Amino acid sequence: MARKKNRMSTEVNAGSMADIAFLLLIFFLVTTTIASDKGILNILPPKLDPNNPPPKIDLNERNIFTILLNANDQLLVEGEFRDDPEGLDEDIKAFILNFGAPDEEAAALYNTLPASLKALSAKLPESSDDPGEAVVSIKTDRGTSYDKYLEVFDLTKKAYFDIYAERVNLSTDEYRALTGKNDAEVSLQDRGKEGIPMAISIAEPNKIGGN
Amino acid sequence: MGKFGKKNKVSENIPTSALPDIIFMLLFFFMVTTVLRDQEILVEQKIPQATQLQKLQKKTLISYIFIGKPKNTALYGTEPRVQANDALLNTPDIVQWVNQERDLLPEADRGLITISMKADRDVKMGPISDVQTELREADARRILYASTGKVNND
C-alpha cells in the first residue's frame, strides 16, 4: 500500500498550462487594438459672428503663400502648377524665412537665428516681409481628397517644425515629441516658436467636384 | 551502424517547461495594451499617413469622430457619413454631440476638448469641411487629424 502511494506523482501536471495561456493569448490578440492617439493638431478659427464680422486685415499678397488644391488633386503653388507636393516644405521654409523687408523687431529676430536658417533667407522683395507677417494659405475644392489635403498640411507643419527644431538645436522629431509636461520642455517649445507664429490659414473650400 | 546508434541516444526532446512562461509574458503584454472595443465602427476607416504626428498629453480630452463611407451601403448609402459614439450622425447634430461630450469633462478642461477626426483617406474635402464648420460652431476648435506614421523614403 505504502509503495503504491509513493509511486503516485506528486507534481501537478502543468502541460496544459501552455494551452490555456495560448487560448487567452489568442483572445487578446484578436480583440486588441493598440490605441493610436496620434495625429496632426490643427486649431480651427473661432466661429463667425454675423453681428461682428472679423476685422478685415490687409495683407500684402507677397506675405501670403497660396496653395490651391483642385478636385483632381493637382496643386497650384504661388501661381505655379505642380502635380505632386514633393519639396513643398522647402519652399515654405524659404518663404517664411525670406526677410524681404524686416522691421526692427524682425531684424533682431533674424540675428538670433542659427546660420543654417539664415542661409535660407533670400531677401527677395516679392516674397514675405518677415516671419511674423508670413501666412501659408491652403485652399481646396470640395472634391479634393482628404488624403492629399493632409499631405499638404503635413508638409506645411513640417516646414514650421523644421524651423522651430533648428532654432533649439533639436531634430524635428525630437521637437515634435515635446509635450510641454515640464518647464524645460515648455521653454524649449517657446524658444522654438518665438517670433515665428505658425500661421496656416485653411480657406473655405470651393464647391467644385463634390457636394 | 554503431555510429548511428550512438547518435540516436542523444535526447531529442526540446525542453518546453519555459513555454508557458513565455506565453504568459506575451499574454500579459496584450492584456495590458488591449483596449476592448466599446463601439462598433460603422464607417470605413483607412487612416491616412503623415509624418508630423503629435501625441496629446491628456487622453481624456479626446473625443472621436469617424468619417467615411458606411460599411453597410445597403442601409446607409455610399456617401461619406459621420459617426460619433456608436451611431451615425447628421452634420447638424454634431454641435449637440460636442456639447454632450464636453459636459462629461471636468469643468476646468472643457475649453480644451480635442476632437480626433478619424477620416477615411478616400473622403473628399467637402464632408470634412462641413464637419469642421460644425465644430467651429460648437466651439470645439482643437482638432486632431488622426493619421498613422509614414516611413520617410529620403
Describe the protein's architecture and organization:
The complex is a heterodimer of chains A (about 210) and B (about 150). Chain A is α/β, with parallel strands linked by helices and about 210 residues long. Chain A has a domain at about 60-200. Chain A contains 8 helices and 6 strands, in the order H-H-E-E-E-E-H-H-H-E-H-H-H-E. Chain A has a 5-stranded mixed β-sheet, covered by helices on one side. The longest helix of chain A has 22 residues, at about 145-165. The radius of gyration of chain A is 28 Å and the shape is elongated. Chain B has about 150 residues and is an alpha/beta fold. Chain B has a domain at about 50-150: Nucleotidyltransferase, domain 5. Helix content of chain B is about 30%, strand content about 20%. Chain B has helices spanning about 1-10, 20-35, 75, 95-105, 125-135; strands at about 50, 55, 60-70, 80-85, 85-90, 115-120, 140-145, 150. In chain B, the strands form 2 sheets. A 5-stranded mixed β-sheet of chain B has the order 5-4-3-6-7, covered by helices on one side. Chain B has a two-stranded parallel sheet with strand order 1-8. In chain B, strand 6, helix 5 (about 125-135) and strand 7 (about 140-145) form a beta-alpha-beta unit. The longest helix of chain B is centred in the first third of the chain and has 15 residues, at about 20-35. The model of chain B has no long low-confidence stretch (mean pLDDT about 80). The interface between A and B is large, with 54 and 54 residues.
TL;DR of this structure?
Chain A is of the alpha/beta class. Chain A has 8 helices and 6 strands, in the order ααββββαααβαααβ. The interface between A and B is large, with 54 and 54 residues.
